[in-house]
């Protein structure tokens, strides 16, 4: 706008800009040099709170209630949200060692516990505490050769099936990408011939190690039956949504269903024969309702073949009894022994106490039953007719039904009864769904070794490189993702390879198929007397000797499974 226009004032400003300038002038100090140095005596003119700040005094926060007028002068000022309420200095930021006040001053107590129990540290980790600091003294890191025993460099055996593994490390995983055709073929041959590969502990450049890349290909192989490329056949429990809508030509064709089941029975029998001759260490049978784990003699601390089923129902257990299959309920028996021990210990105390409400209810129900049979006494035939104990039968059935579909319903079959279980599963009509997306589809057989009718499958591997915040900057974080039915031998084989390739430093997040976590329950009934002979016979099952030795250990995880594994300085830390 030109200055010649009548009515134009060059000093005209918008109201908002005028208010902003006034607010700025109100916040500026009267003396430009007053901010440099203010004495406590002269600071009283700046207000009571600013005088206290100039004197270096600690202030309390303002009360919640206050007016904006001059009546309450303290409430008109605002507290600095970035100021520290305490007088402690800020912690130093840097890669120096982190000390924990709860940790002992010397490493002797921890090392004594470490040697006596022969286990690695199990606990929660903070963001700044590393696994090496947890498994070593505060002032000196433990090397691989300073560990008390060889078992301290292993994690517990986990018999659950993993659906996903996520490995992370500060070292690159590029050695797992773009395998050459020769390396891929060599990995297949090594798996089929059960070749045992020994790698050096520390590699300078894993990308140039052909043996490592071939062994990685070998560790990703597993065997599956049936094989339908358009269907995801694991997991089967709760997989109706994933299978729904897919083509299933056998659903309404009984002839095709019989062909699929006959081929499945042949594959199942072949797999069992391999297990019996110790040429296959273990395998899984995955149905739409439960999962069965068959293990060879010598694994998981058992001297005979074993099979564990979970979850089960009362109807399934009754059908197994009718077929003459002898089995046990490990968790139910364990709970019963614990209750019996507690009752014997507190027997005298319980006699002196009053009856509990369930006992009173039981007495009332017994009185009702006696009244219901009182008419027999009036007729004088109470001695000739035997009174049935209906309440006892009902209570027993109620306890059996309550544990259905729960981890406590796990069933253990041992020895020759596993062969009877094989015939039972082949002829069991309820093994296959009769309706729904899985109707007519045989159960999935998963095995680490080849068997008749099986198809070779590969776990999927994918690498990702990201930038993560680290102190004042960023650092490279490398990850390797493995997806598919990861069985126990594959998990141990992959950790052995990463131990060499990643220089003994990596971590892994493990994602478990929850219905199989109960397989970590210890099913050993008595101590093995011929353990050395069984391990020698299992040497030809096709697994690495270190992996085989790992699977012969007793399960210690109980109802849980491994969720996190971390290796630092060649020592494992884990969480379940």
Model description:
The protein is an alpha+beta fold and 576 residues long. Among the domains are: 171 residues, no CATH class; 161 residues, no CATH class. The chain has 18 helices and 13 strands. The protein has a seven-stranded antiparallel sheet with strand order 6-5-4-3-7-2-8. Strand 3 and strand 4 form a beta hairpin. The chain is globular. The termini are far apart.
Question: Oligomeric form of this entry?
Answer: single chain
Q: Mean pLDDT, nearest integer?
A: 75
Estimated structural class: alpha+beta
Q: In order across it, which strands form the biggest sheet?
A: 6-5-4-3-7-2-8
Q: Radius of gyration over alpha carbons?
A: 35 Å
Instruction: Report the sheet-strand fraction.
Output: 5-15%
Biggest β-sheet, characterized?
A: 7 strands, antiparallel
User: How many angstroms separate the termini?
Assistant: 76 Å
Secondary-structure topology with pairs:
Blueprint: H1 15-27, H2 48-54, H3 108-117, H4 131-134, E1 162-169, H5 181-192, H6 210-219, E2 221-225, H7 240-243, H8 254-276, E3 282-286, E4 291-295, E5 306-310, H9 314-322, H10 330-345, H11 347-352, H12 357-372, H13 374-379, H14 390-402, E6 411-414, H15 417-427, E7 444-447, E8 455-458, E9 460-470, E10 473-486, H16 488-501, E11 505-512, H17 531-537, H18 545-551, E12 564-568, E13 571-575
Antiparallel strand pairs: 1-10, 1-11, 2-7, 2-8, 3-4, 3-7, 4-5, 5-6, 9-10, 11-12, 12-13
């Amino acid at each position: 706008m030109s200055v010649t226009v009548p009515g134009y004032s060059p000093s005209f400003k918008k109201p908002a800009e005028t208010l902003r300038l006034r607010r700025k002038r109100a916040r500026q100090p009267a003396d430009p040099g007053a901010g440099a140095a203010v004495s406590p005596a002269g600071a009283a003119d700046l207000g009571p709170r600013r005088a206290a700040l100039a004197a270096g005094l600690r202030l309390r926060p303002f009360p919640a209630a206050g007016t904006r007028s001059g009546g309450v002068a303290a409430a008109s000022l605002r507290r600095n949200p970035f100021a520290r309420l305490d007088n402690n200095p800020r912690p130093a930021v840097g890669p120096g060692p982190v000390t924990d006040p709860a940790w002992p001053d010397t490493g002797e107590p921890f090392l004594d516990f470490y040697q006596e129990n022969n286990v690695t540290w199990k606990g929660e980790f903070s963001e700044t505490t590393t696994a090496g600091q947890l498994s070593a003294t505060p002032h000196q890191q433990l090397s691989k050769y300073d560990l008390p025993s060889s078992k301290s460099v292993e994690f517990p055996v986990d018999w659950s099936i993993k659906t996903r593994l996520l490995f992370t490390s500060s070292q690159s995983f590029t050695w797992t990408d773009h395998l050459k055709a020769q390396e891929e073929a060599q990995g297949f041959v090594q798996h089929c011939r059960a070749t045992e590969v020994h790698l050096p502990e520390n590699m300078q450049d894993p990308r140039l190690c052909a043996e490592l890349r071939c062994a990685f290909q070998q560790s990703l192989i597993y065997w599956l039956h049936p094989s339908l490329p358009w269907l995801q056949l694991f997991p089967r429990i709760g997989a109706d949504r994933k299978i729904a809508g897919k083509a299933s030509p056998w659903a309404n064709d009984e002839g095709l269903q019989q062909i699929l089941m006959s081929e499945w029975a042949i594959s199942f029998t072949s797999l069992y024969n391999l297990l019996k001759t110790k040429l296959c260490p273990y395998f899984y049978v995955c149905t739409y309702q439960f999962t069965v784990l068959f293990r060879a003699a010598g694994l998981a601390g058992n001297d005979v073949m074993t099979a564990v089923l979970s979850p089960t129902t009362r109807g399934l257990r009754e059908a197994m009894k009718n077929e003459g299959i002898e089995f046990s309920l490990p968790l139910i028996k364990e709970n019963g022994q614990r209750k019996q021990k507690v009752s014997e210990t507190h027997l005298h105390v319980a006699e002196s106490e009053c009856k509990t409400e369930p006992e009173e209810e039981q007495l009332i129900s017994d009185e009702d039953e006696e009244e219901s049979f009182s008419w027999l006494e009036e007729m004088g035939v109470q001695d000739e007719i035997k009174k049935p104990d209906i309440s006892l039968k009902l209570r027993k059935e109620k306890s059996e039904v309550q544990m259905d579909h729960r981890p406590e319903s796990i069933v253990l079959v041992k020895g020759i009864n596993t062969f009877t279980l094989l015939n039972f599963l082949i002829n069991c009509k309820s093994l296959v769904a009769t309706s729904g997306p899985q109707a007519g589809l045989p159960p999935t057989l998963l095995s680490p070794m080849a068997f008749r009718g099986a198809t070779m499958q590969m776990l999927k591997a994918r690498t990702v490189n990201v930038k993560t915040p680290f102190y004042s900057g960023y650092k490279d974080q490398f990850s390797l993702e493995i997806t598919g039915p990861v069985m126990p031998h594959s998990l141990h084989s992959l950790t052995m390879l990463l131990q060499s390739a990643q220089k003994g430093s990596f971590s892994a997040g493990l994602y478990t198929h929850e219905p199989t976590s109960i397989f970590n329950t210890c099913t050993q009934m008595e101590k093995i007397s011929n353990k050395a002979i069984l391990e020698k016979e299992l040497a030809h099952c096709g697994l690495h000797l270190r992996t085989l030795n790992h699977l012969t250990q007793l399960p210690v995880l109980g109802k849980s499974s491994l969720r996190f594994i971390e290796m630092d300085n060649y020592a494992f830390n884990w969480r379940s």
